[in-house]
Amino acid sequence: xxxxxxxxxxxxxxxxxxxxxxxxxxxxxxxxxxxxxxxxxxxxxxxxxxxxxxxxxxxxxxxxxxxxxxxxxxxxxxxxxxxxxxxxxxxxxx
Length: 94
Description:
Blueprint: E1 10-12, E2 14-17, E3 23-25, E4 43-44, H1 48-58, H2 67-80, H3 82-85, E5 91-93
Antiparallel strand pairs: 1-5, 2-3, 2-4
Helix pairs in contact: 1-2
């Protein structure tokens, strides 16, 4: 029986391309971004609150990698300057 005080989270790494805003869940990123073909060193891990804001804004009907999601992710990353401050770490996703 599952305890009621534990949230139903899963562990995943979110890799985000700093060139186009593409996000890849889990594992290592490919050698090139599937969206813009940038080299895999352009992938970083961004703060949880940015990804939550992007996904909340999109709702359940749109995929996280739609054009709107990628543009919003890049805008929020630019506002906070995350490309120079954040590195790869594990994260919990709802």
